[in-house]
Amino acid sequence: MKTQRRRLLLALAALPVASLAHAAGAPLVEVWKSPTCGCCKDWITHLEANGFRTKVHDSGNTAMRSRLGVDVKYGSCHTALVGGYAIEGHVPAREIQRLLKERPVAIGLAVPGMPVGSPGMDGPDYGGQKDPYDVVLLRKDGTAATYQTYR
Predict the structure, then answer these.
(1) In degrees, to the nearest 5, what angle opens at C-alpha 12 toward C-alphas 8 and 15?
(2) Is 44 helix (H, G, I), strand (E, B) or coil?
(3) How confident is the model at residue 24 (pLDDT cuts 50, 70, 90)?
(4) Assigned CATH for 27-150
């Protein structure tokens, strides 16, 4: 009985260490946003719920967008950086995971504007409404292509 109890206690003690190791291996998304933007906070929660770690800066969105080479026409309320890629706006975690897996030669991904129904713009205040939108792959040559369509 003492051996079983000891094994159980050792297993329980190891859980936090295993969780930290998993979290440390999760991709880090660094986000620049307004300190008062609720939809940005909801998008960050979406990322965290999908296995990403986040580091948040409550200023510098416009400057970071420019520094990363994201044209203002693709702009939104927050800019992020993950794995060397720019992420502009309410890009679903699924598309960020795909980007990191495929590793295309690109600046990153964008969801221009703030489409209702995209992650962070999908809370109860929107009453289940979903507007169609595209996730756009921003190429280094200044062109863009549809990466994923949401209808």
Answers:
(1) 145
(2) helix
(3) low
(4) 3.40.30.10
